[in-house]
Amino acid sequence: MSENILRQQKTPKLIVVTAFDRDESGDLQPVFGPAEQQTEDRAIRTAKGLAAKHAGLIAWSRDARWGEPMESH
Hints:
Elements (H helix, E strand, L loop, with lengths): L1 H7 L4 E10 L5 E10 L2 H12 L4 E8 L10
Antiparallel strand pairs: 1-2, 1-3
């Protein structure tokens, strides 16, 4: 039964938002984050709130993989 429960659980997701402003040279520099967000909806709200105040932002996510590390050769 425990295997069935594990299969039904959603894969954890890492959701992050980072905001940038330009420095004196015009280069983008991070000024907020990277900040982990609990949900995609929260990340969208955070990004929308930051968008009007900063030169740029990135919001991204990826599925997390748990368990033994995979070796690549």
